[in-house]
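cache lookup: miss for this entity combination. No prior model stored, computing from scratch. Input as submitted by user K.M.:
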Amino acid sequence: MSNANVTAPIPRNIATREATWVRWLLIAITLVFLTAFLFVPLLSVFVEALRNGVDAYWEALKEPDALSAIKLTVLVAVIAVPLNLVFGLAAAWAIAKFEFRGKSLLITLIDLPFSVSPVIAGLVYVLLFGLQGWMGPWLAEHDIQLIFAVPGLVLATLFVTFPFIARELIPLMQEQGKEEEEAAVSLGASGWQTFWHVTLPNVKWGLLYGVILCNARAMGEFGAVSVVSGHIRGFTNTMPLHVEVLYNEYNFVAAFAVASLLALLALVTLIAKTWVEWHTQRERSAAH
Amino acid sequence: MNHVVKLLAGALLLTGMAASATAKDVELLNVSYDPTRELYQDFNKAFAEYWKKKTGDKVAIKQSHGGAGKQARAVIDGLEADVVTLALAYDIDAIAEKAKLIPADWQKRLPGNSSPYTSTIVFLVRQGNPKGIKDWDDLVKPGISVITPNPKTSGGARWNYLAAWGYALKKPGGNEQTAKAFVAKLYKNVPVLDSGARGSTTTFVQRGIGDVLVTWENEAFLAAKEFGAGKVQIVVPSVSILAEPPVALIDKNADKHGTRVAAQAYLEYLYTPEGQEIAAKNYYRPRLDTVAAKYDRQFPKVNLFTIDEVFGGWQKAQKTHFADEGVFDRIYTPDR
C-alpha cells in the first residue's frame, strides 16, 4: 500500500467487512478441506502408481488387459458422446424453441438419470435384455448379445450421460430466445441453414462444455457399467472396472497406474472446462 | 428424433455384430468366483499348452470373477459362460433351475461331486495373534471384530456361516437353538459385510479393519503370501467344514458356441495330476491321492464335516438359512 492511497476509504457493503482473521479462517478451512479430500487423495494415486518406478508404471499400462480396458473405454465414449450430442441438441432445440404439451414432463424426464442410482440404470437393461428379461429370449434366438458385451456398456453409459449436454444447452437456448432464428427464416434460410449459421454458433461454447462433462462421466462411470459388464478380463472391463479387478488381485501398482489415467482425464477435463469458461466470458464481454 | 433412434439402432447393431464375429480358434469363457483368480491364471496357461499339443488348436480362455452368487446371477441373465467354476453347488443349481441351461443332475457328471479340489474355512489374524484367537468360541467374545462377507452374495460367506453353525452344533449340548444363538452372537461382532471373499480380504489386510478374517483356507494362504509373513498369520480352528467348490459345463452355451469338446476337456484337465498340482500350488486341497500326499505338509489336519452330514445338502441349507426371511435374515440386523 503506498501513500497515494490516503483518500477516504470507499464504503464497503457490511457483509464483506468481516475482520481479517475471519477471512483468513474461511480461506484456511477451505484449503484444509480441499487438501484433505481432494489434493492428498489425488496425489496418493500418482504416488502409489509410481511406487515401483516409471518402468513398472509403463509396464502396467502396456499390459494387454489394461490396454484393452483403455481401448474399450475410449470406444464406449466415442459412441456414447456423439449420440448424446445429437440427442442433447434435438432435445434442447425442441424445448427452447417450440411450445408443446408435456414440455415440463420432458424436462423432468431428461433429469431422470441424475436422480436415479447408476446401479438401477444397469439393472434396467438386465431386466430388459437379460436372458430372463422381456426381450432376452428373442435376442438369444437371434444370437444378439447386448448385455455382458459392448452394446450393453454403451447403453448403460448413454443412460447415465444423456442429461449432460441437454442440461447445458436448454437454459442457454431459452435465454437466447428464437428471434434470431425467426429473422433467419423470414430472410429465406432453410431449417438446416438456420441451425448451422444461427443456432449452432450461438451455443457452441455451451455445447463444448456439455461434451466435456459428458465425456468425463462416460469414461469414468462405474456403477451402471459394472452391472451390465460381466467383468470378462480383457473384453468387457472398462478402465474403472479394471481398476477394481487389479486392486482385488493385490496388484496395487497396476491398479493405481490405470487409476492415474482416470485422474489425468479429470485434470484435462478441468483445464478444458476452464478454457471454455474463459472463452465464453470473453465472448460475452465482447458482445456488450 | 427419428434420426436419433436410427443412429442408436445402427450403432447397437454394429457393435453387436463386432462382438460376436471375432471368434477365432477356440474361445472359452470361465465364469468363476472371487478367490480363484490366481488358480485359473496358472491353470489356463497350462491347459492352453496341453490342448495345443493334443489337438493343434489354439484355445484362449476368458475369465470373469466376482462373488459366486452374483456370478451365477450373471450367467442366468445371459453371461455366456462355457464353464462355471463356482464356490458352491447351490449357485450352479440356480443356473439349472432358473435358466435351464444345464440338466438338474449336473453334479453327477464329474467325479467328487463335480468338485476337482476342496478347501475349508480358517481364520486369519494379525501377526502375533494379539487377541489370542484359537477357535470359533473366541469369535463370539465381546469386543472381537470379525470380518466375513455377505452370505447373500458370497459363496465363501455361506461356507463361513455353516462352518460356525456346525461347530456350535457339535459342541457338547449343542442343538439348533444353541447353534442359532452362537451364530447370531458371531454376526453381532461383524462390522462390515463385503459382497465377496476378496473384498473382505482387502478390508482386513489392506484397510486394517477387524481382529480376525474368516475365510477360505486358500484365500488365507494367498493373503499371507501376498502381504508377506510378519503381517498376518493363519489360525486353524478345531472343527471346520469341507468346502467343495464345484465346476460345470454350461451345455446350452457351449453347444451354441460349438465349444463343448474343449470345455469338457478343460474341466477334466482339472482332475489330472497336472491340474491337481496347480490347484495344490494355489492352496486348494487336491482330490488325487498322489498329489495330496505330496502336499501333505502344506495343509493342516482339521476335523472336517460335510454339508450333507450336518445340513442335508445345499438345497436344504440354502432354503433354511439364506433364502429371504431365512435364519440369516432373522439373526442379522445391521442397526442393532
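stored under new cache key. Chain A touches chain B through 36 residues (CB under 8 Å).
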